[in-house]
Amino acid sequence: ILTHLDTKKRVDVFALSIYRLVIFPKAQGHINEAVSDLFDRLDKRVTLVLTILAETFRSLSACQRASE
């Protein structure tokens, strides 16, 4: 009986861990804030062209600085 209770506790802890990841992924650091903002903007039908261009420019600038 004691082994069964330990197993049930383990399953409960595992389930709570999964719920935490599903419900609070941003707070746990599993989802980048930029990704979360992207989905918020898609939901509001905001165009992402300027965001994508800015991110591309930032990435290319970082690559250029790294190669120097």
Automatic annotation (TrEMBL):
Record-linked Pfam families: DUF7745 (PF24924)
Domain DUF7745: 6-66
Signal peptide, first to last residue: none
Domain of life per record: Eukaryota
Transmembrane segments: none
PANTHER family associated with the record: AMINOTRANSFERASE-LIKE PLANT MOBILE DOMAIN-CONTAINING PROTEIN (PTHR48200:SF1), PROTEIN, PUTATIVE-RELATED (PTHR48200)
Protein's UniProt name: DUF7745 domain-containing protein
Species, as recorded: Gossypium trilobum
